[in-house]
Amino acid sequence: MAVIKSNICKMCGGLLDIDVDRQVYICPFCGVTFDYEYFRKDNVLELAKKSITRHEFGAARDAYEYMLKKDPHNFEALRGLILCKCKWTTMAPIQQNEEVHLHPDDPELIRALENCMPEHKEYFGTIKKTLEVLKDYRKSRAELANLENDRMAVQKKLRDLIRAQTVNNSQFSTAMSDAASFMVDNYKVATAIIEIGIVILVGLGYATIAHRQYWIPILLAGFILFFVSIYNIIKFVTNKSLEAAKVPVKAKLDELEKQVEAKNAECVELLRTYKTMSATVVTTYRMEEPPENKEPTGKPARPSRTSSDFPSSSKVI
Known about the structure:
Elements: E1 3-8, E2 15-19, E3 24-26, E4 32-35, H1 41-53, H2 57-70, H3 75-86, H4 107-115, H5 118-169, H6 174-185, H7 187-210, H8 215-283, E5 312-315
Helix pairs in contact: 1-2, 1-3, 2-3, 3-4, 4-5, 5-8, 6-7, 6-8, 7-8
């Protein structure tokens, strides 16, 4: 038995239960039942609205489904099923994009688009388009997050190269390494220095032969000069290698910076569009809050026997 609460008992003022299966009102306070044309359109929709207000989405869904059996094109029922699916009391939460879990191809939305009256197709179509924009926005946000992760990885790689270059340049004989770099950049100067170096080496060789008694310190000085030269050549080559490695990394970083900027602008535009469209959904066919239910007054108010709303009543035994 599906029982839904709605309306006020005319006998005691209590809140009536509705037995959907038996199609009667039942008062849990005084035990009176009313044969009532509950399934009239206005009463069904009123009941559904009250159920939604009390967050009784299952009861509201039952009422809307029954309404659609009577009137398959009813706007309130079609929209109400969407509210029940989302567990919303109004359409206002659609403006909070993080709280929306409805998809543009949701069966309830497709059902509404297919069954609504022509004048309501634009409204449900706007909901669908709004959700499509939200889907695109979320996709762009995910792509932006991936781009930002890639940018962070490239920035780390560039920092590592700069750190390695700093360590390489801060080691022993930096001045000689800088001199070697200067020679490479200045071909004529480098040629002159090489010629001078050859002359010095020839002079050292002559001095070694001429002063044989000093051959050991001369040979030792030559070895030291040789190893220092090799060391600085290695430093110079390493520095140039690191500089060359930084070029594609910087280019990649510049490209990622442009992509991140463009994707961020795209997200901002999509979000702005979504906010505008969702506001249109909320303000079009704005829902009114149903009246609050009254508590039992304890003072019976007998219904008129001529009441067209309550054709007959009987005591439940």
